[in-house]
Design goal:
With 207 residues, the protein is an alpha/beta fold. The protein is built from 3 helices and 17 strands. The chain is 16% helix and 29% strand. The structure holds coenzyme A (COA).
Length: 207
């Protein structure tokens, strides 16, 4: 009995240490039976309790960065993400039964204004944040274009793809390896290239 209690205490303290060492995981809600090994979550200027939600039976790794106090990333059930970079100020929503291969980058905003007059202080402000150990704190996001990224159920995104702001990738769609997705991808199509264009339609009997 004592041995059993000691074993339970050991397992508990191990898990607790893991959580304590990466406090940013406190911003994550994860449902049962999901694996989140190798997941780095960085919330630069937190203003709420939770930023990221993952459903059940998923396998998720990668770097997830919230640049401002806003934004939310939602990932469904039975979904796989094999690493990569997800940068959010608005929203990234990934459905159920989705596969996202290694090396993919999702950014839901332009990072800087297209006008020099509106981005001229960006470096100075960024450096000030770094100097004060408050990364991103002084950056002005007012004139940065942004748009939620959505990946619908059953989509498959090949390795080393880039998905830009405001894009919706349709249900069951396939994005060929190395593509840059700048426009919406219709359901049950295969797209590829830079910028990604339709290569094939997936007929109903091949879904
Ligand atoms: C998209 C994909 C699934 C298509 O496979 P496929 O049906 O066997 O396709 P094919 O090789 O017959 O190519 C079909 C067409 O798509 C084009 N194509 C294939 N891969 C492409 C790519 N990565 N980018 C741009 N075009 C591509 C081919 O040039 C060909 O064009 P054509 O019809 O004008 O000749 C495959 O190319 C791919 O990218 N797989 C991803 C693999 C991956 O990411 N694995 C990681 C583990 S999940």
């Amino acid at each position: 009995m004592i041995l059993l209690l000691k074993k339970i205490a050991r397992v508990f303290s191990k898990n607790f240490k893991k959580e304590k060492n990466n406090t940013s995981l406190n911003y994550l809600v994860c449902e049962r039976n999901t694996r989140i090994e190798g997941l780095n979550l960085s919330v630069r200027n937190p203003a709420k309790d939770k930023y990221m939600y993952i459903g059940k039976n998923s396998v998720i790794s990668g770097n997830f960065v919230f640049e401002t106090a806003s934004g939310e990333i939602r990932i469904g059930n039975n979904t796989f993400i094999g690493g990569g970079m997800f940068v959010c100020i608005e929203g990234i929503e990934i459905g159920n039964d989705v596969m996202i291969s290694w090396g993919c980058t999702f950014v839901d905003n332009n990072s800087h204004s297209l006008r020099w007059s509106e981005r001229k202080d960006d470096v100075r402000d960024w450096k000030k944040g770094l100097d004060e150990n408050k990364i991103g704190f002084y950056k002005d996001w007012t004139n940065v274009k942004r748009g939620k990224i959505v990946v619908k159920d059953k989509a498959w995104i090949g390795f080393n793809c880039i998905v830009m702001k405001g894009v919706t990738i349709g249900e069951g769609a396939v994005v060929a390896a190395g593509s840059v997705v700048t426009k919406d991808v219709p359901d049950w199509t295969i797209v590829g290239g830079n910028p990604a264009k339709i290569i094939k339609y997936i007929p109903e009997n091949e879904r």
